[in-house]
Structures are given as structure tokens and as C-alpha cells.
Amino acid sequence: MTVSLGAIDDDTSILYTLEAMAESQGWKMHTSTNWQEALDWVRRKEVDILLVDYHMPEISGREVIKKSRALSKDVVILVLTIEENPEIARELILAGADDFVLKPLRLADFTSRIALHARLAQYRRMPGVESLGKGINPETLRVVIDALHCKKGEKSTAREVAKVTGLSYQTAHRYLEHLVASGITAREPVYREGHPGRPMFLYSLSENHDS
Questions:
Q1: Is 35 exposed, middle or buried (0-12, 13-18, 19+ CB in 10 A)?
Q2: What is the pLDDT of residues 30-62, one digit of tens each?
Q3: Where are the chain's structural domains?
């Protein structure tokens, strides 16, 4: 999978480590200690995934996340942190972060996390997300895609997606069917005992778009 990464951290040793890890997987990596340069990457769509240090001297990681998210709804933002405080995590998610990469960095954790989120970046930028039919809102569509992505390969019913996203069942079902028609989502019928003629449908992100 081709993916372009960007990392901002005031610790150059962390940046060297990230660059080496990325190169070992064949991934392109931009690194900088300058947060404004990171915003330029996002603005120019040069990175699919942006890694942001939580603790920086000139500006908080939270502010960089907010500014990055304001520039792009598509870029995946991961926070580099030693913090495991649920309140801090919630604050950063609300600011626009997608997930976290814990320090000290470990190659296995880093590569699996990037591989997972590279897939999310790919879905967010697929033409089907922007080439929408009547009544399909791009922001709502991204919410539904993200809900499926968070299941990490597990299948979901329309009711489960509705519960996670806060959408009505009817709206969740309509958006899921749009994703099926676009080839982004796979749909699998499951026949329940006692209801042979009425299958329940399970949805998951299509494996056809992994590469």
C-alpha cells in the first residue's frame, strides 16, 4: 500500500526513528520540528497521515490538530504521546485527531497502526466519497465510513452503525447502501432463524480497496 506520512516533533531523535521505521516499510516520510511546515504539507495534500507530537514548546499538539483538521477533512491525524489519560484522549479526538501512537515507539505497533489508518485515508479520498447522489452529504458519509473503519474488519448492521454515529436507522441504511453501490462497502446477507425470507445485512469496508 502506497502511503505518504508526515511527522512533527520537537525531538529530532523521535523524527529519525519514525523516518527509519517508515523507510523500512517503503513509506514516504516528511519530518519537521516546525509546526507551520506540517500545516503546509496538509494544505498542499502532500501527506495522507500526519503524526503530531502532543507536547511541543511553541504550540500545543491540540492546536496543531485543530489547524490541520480545519485545512483538511481527509488527512488522518495521529497523536504521538506518552499520555494515556482518557480525558486528554477525548479532548484530542474532539480537536480532530483520529488515533494515537504511544511513545516509546515500537516498530510492530507503528507499522500496524499506519497500515490500518492508511486504509482510512484511502477511503476518505476515494472519488465515490465526493461524487455523491442526491441527498447524500459528504460529512455524514465520512462519519459512516469512519464508523465502519473503527470496527477493524468486523461487520456491522445498519442499526449498529446508527447507534455508533447517532444517525437514524433509515439514514444509516441509506448511506450504507450508497457505499455498497459505490463499491466502497461490501454487504453480506445473513438469514436469521425463523425469518428465512428476510435476511439481515452486514456491512464492512470492501477488501477490493485495500491496495
A1: buried
A2: 999 999 999 999 999 999 999 999 988 889 999
A3: 4-124, 128-209
